[in-house]
Write a structure and sequence with these properties.
The complex is a heterodimer of chains A (380) and B (325).
Chain A lengths: L3 E10 L2 E11 L4 E5 L6 H9 L6 E6 L2 E2 L10 E4 L11 H11 L4 H14 L15 H13 L5 E5 L7 H18 L3 E5 L2 H7 L2 E6 L2 E6 L1 H6 L4 H6 L6 E9 L5 E4 L2 E4 L7 E10 L4 E3 L6 E9 L3 E8 L2 E8 L9 E6 L5 E4 L15 H4 L1 H12 L1
Helix pairs in contact in A: 2-3, 2-4
Chain B lengths: L1 H14 L7 H29 L3 H4 L13 H7 E5 L2 H5 L7 H8 L2 E6 L2 H32 L5 H10 L5 H15 L5 H25 L3 H9 L4 H12 L1 H17 L2 H6 L7 H4 L4 E2 L2 E2 L1 H21 L1 H8 L7
Helix pairs in contact in B: 1-2, 1-17, 2-16, 4-16, 7-10, 7-13, 8-10, 10-13, 11-12, 13-17
Classes of the chains: A alpha+beta (380), B mainly alpha (325).
Chain lengths: 380, 325
């Protein structure tokens, strides 16, 4: 296994820039998810690491070796394709053994390692079946088997669960993560599904328009989004933005929104006058009659364990995740209060987060149990 | 050939109805297909029956439906004969085989082998050789056009196709002059190259469609698994392109096998193929129809066998695009 270092990587197709100046490092044994909507450059980044596309600029290092312009076959990596790309003219055994065949591994050794791999993935009973008759999950496992049989430097996966049923996808997410925990293979996993990324990855790189918006742990990304794009992309429902115009000095703790003072984490930088947005996760909103920030109930979605209540305020619709017990009548006036130390402030023009005490060390420790719940909520 | 045709007709007629056709309409459709098959079979049956008639029966009018089968046509096809006096024939030792006997009845003796077998062999060599060349080159070219950014790819593809737009008769004279200079006229190699040139355009176009349908991921997976692109092509792309290659091979073979115009203009002796040879079989006092029919019947056999062997692929080739997943 090896570390992957991507250095100012760039890829242009004619005038279209697919990847812009991306730099990140995947540590040895780490699971990185490249997350973003389609066309954001995540697959292109992956294909450059694999050697299926050559970069326009920048470099890729694999375990210390510069592989930027090396052929795919010389990189010693494994790739799991979205449609699995199982060779239809070979049975399961031959598919899994195919990468070993190219390395000139003796037949008996191939047989042994294929069977060992099949056992690990619990597909030893279908080894001699044709791949065309397999169910989606088994195809997935065979594709994984073909990837791990060679013990490559790293695994690259391009939306490998994209074609599976939602129900089965959960099973595979768990299986993939368990497999990763057992073999500790450096993995880069491309997905547009935040749930998959949050559930499996050690680190997530959120990409948009060829740019990495944020590269951090799932918790960091959820709790301290670096940009409005990340805040909006991660979480379901996404973060609420309360827009207001103001200039704030360093050290400010109050934002004045619709004539109401809202407490927020202490700012660590001066903010020039302009359009700002206060970012509030739905689960950090409570209804409080005393609050000066008011709105009318617009709708509610009952989810069993909790409910999403939408409130119409002067600044637009705000969605709150509230306990399921109470029911609300549409049109009722309510006051909104927020968990002050969990709010993010964004500069609307650049879309970037403004540094505040939110971004300082203690949060993750203080609120660990709450974050665990946050994650579960996010997945529901 | 006709079985593939009738199956294709059946597919086409049922494809239009949205609901499952009723038993009656199925029966009617079946009857139409069988009728069509019978009509297309009439010339073939006629040729076969003529090949086993005696020369007088073959030209009798009205045509004889019931007749005594004779192998004279086949004997005449493979032999040359000379006329002898009845006394000479009576003095000969007993006939050594069927053909000997049949020939003697007409007051003739077998003088030697005819040119049919060498001509037939020419046909086999030239048709299969050019098919092999056209399909091999076509597969590689189609793969290139399908997978790589070829500058002016569309123009090149049109240019390749344009070689088929001129009638053979229009290019035959320039080719004849060229071949004479190059020493290729009346050679099997020359005919093979010519048919390859004509067929390669068909092969490129047909195969490009088939290879476009094979996802690139297979080669990419193979390349990541440690194979070069060429190895990936042979180990992963070719096995999946067999249907297309088989269909293309049949089309190329049928063209090269049946080709008459170039063959009759450019070959006369050692490289002559069967199509221009068969009509020149002349018996005593006119065309030897049973021998011509026998030659035609034998001429049909290789293409029939090849087509039956590959009929599944041929059917998919004809209905290409409609039945693929």
């Amino acid at each position: 296994m090896a570390e992957i270092r991507v250095d100012h990587l760039r890829k242009a197709f004619g005038d279209f820039v697919a990847v812009q100046d991306s730099s990140f490092t995947v540590e040895d044994g780490e699971f990185l998810a490249l997350l973003g909507p389609s066309g954001c450059g995540k697959t292109t980044t992956l294909r450059m690491i694999a050697g299926l596309e050559l970069p326009t600029g920048g470099g890729i290092h694999l375990g210390g070796d510069d592989v930027t312009y090396k052929r795919a076959s010389e990189r010693d990596i494994a790739f799991v394709f979205q449609l699995f790309a199982l060779y239809p003219h070979m049975n399961v055994r031959k598919n899994i053994g195919f990468p070993l065949l190219s390395q000139g591994v003796p037949k008996a050794e191939i047989k042994r390692r294929v069977e060992e791999t099949a056992k690990l993935l619990q597909i030893d009973h279908i080894l001699d079946k044709s791949v065309s008759g397999l169910a989606g999950g088994d195809r997935q496992r065979v594709a994984l088997g073909r990837a791990i049989v060679r013990r490559p430097k790293c695994f690259l996966m391009d939306e490998p669960l994209g074609t599976l049923d939602a129900e089965f996808r959960d099973v595979m997410v768990r299986e993939l993560r368990e497999l990763h925990n057992r073999i500790h293979a450096t993995t880069v996993y491309v997905t547009h599904d935040q749930i998959e990324a949050m559930a499996m990855a050690d680190k997530i790189a959120v990409m948009n328009h060829g740019i990495i918006e944020q590269f951090a742990t799932p918790r960091e990304i959820y709790n301290r989004p670096a940009s409005m794009y990340v805040a909006d992309f991660i979480g379901s429902p996404p973060m609420n933005f309360l827009r207001f115009s103001a200039g704030l000095p360093k050290g400010a703790r109050i934002a004045r929104i619709d004539g109401a003072d809202v407490q927020m984490p202490e700012l660590r930088a001066d903010v020039a006058p302009g359009e700002l947005a206060l970012g509030v996760r739905p689960e950090h909103i409570r209804f409080s009659d005393a609050s000066p920030l008011r709105g009318a109930i617009y709708g509610a979605e009952y989810l069993g364990t909790n409910q999403i209540v939408t409130v119409e305020t002067a600044g637009g619709l705000v969605r709150a995740r509230l306990p399921a017990e109470r029911s609300y009548r549409i049109g009722d006036r309510v006051g909104l209060s927020f968990v002050a130390d969990r709010l993010s402030l964004f500069d609307c023009r650049s879309g970037r987060a403004i540094p505040s005490t939110l971004h300082e060390g203690t949060l993750a420790r203080d609120t660990r149990h709450r974050e665990v719940r946050d994650l579960e909520v996010g997945h529901g | 050939m006709s079985s593939a045709k009738s199956a294709a007709t059946a597919t086409a007629s049922s494809a239009h109805s949205v609901v499952e056709p009723s038993p009656t309409s199925k029966r009617v459709a079946g009857a139409i297909v069988i009728l069509y098959a019978l009509i297309t079979l009439v010339p073939l049956v006629w040729i076969f029956l003529t090949s086993i008639k005696s020369p007088p029966d073959s030209i009798s009018y009205p045509p004889k439906i019931l007749f005594t089968p004779s192998l004279e046509g086949y004997c005449n096809l493979f032999t040359t004969r000379t006329r002898q006096t009845p006394d000479y024939i009576a003095a000969l030792p007993p006939p050594s085989g069927v053909c000997d006997a049949v020939t003697r009845e007409r007051n003739m003796v077998i003088a030697g082998a005819s040119n049919f077998l060498p001509r037939f062999a020419n046909s086999l060599i030239i048709a299969f050789g050019s098919t092999f060349l056209a399909v091999s080159l076509g597969t590689l070219a189609a793969y290139g056009f399908s997978r790589f950014k070829v500058p002016l790819a569309d123009d090149l593809l049109f240019f390749i196709l344009s070689t088929r737009m001129m009638p053979p008769i229009a290019v035959a004279i320039p080719i004849y002059l060229m071949y004479r200079q190059l020493g290729l006229s009346d050679t099997a190699l020359g005919m093979m190259l010519l048919y390859t040139a004509v067929n390669v355009s068909l092969a490129v176009w047909l195969l490009k469609g088939f290879i476009d349908e094979i996802p690139r991921e297979y080669e990419e997976a193979a390349m990541i698994d440690g194979y070069t692109r060429l190895q990936a092509f042979f180990k992963v792309v070719l096995p999946q392109a067999t249907t297309g290659i088989a269909a293309t091979a049949i089309f190329c073979l049928i063209f090269a096998w049946n080709e008459y115009a170039f063959a009759s203009l450019l070959t006369s002796g050692s490289a002559q193929t069967a199509p221009p040879f068969i009509p020149t079989i002349i018996g005593e006092g006119g065309q030897d129809w049973p021998a011509v029919a026998a030659g035609t019947t034998i001429f049909l056999v290789p293409i029939l066998v090849f087509t039956i062997l590959l009929r599944k692929q041929l059917l998919r080739g004809i209905t290409f695009g409609a039945v693929r997943k």
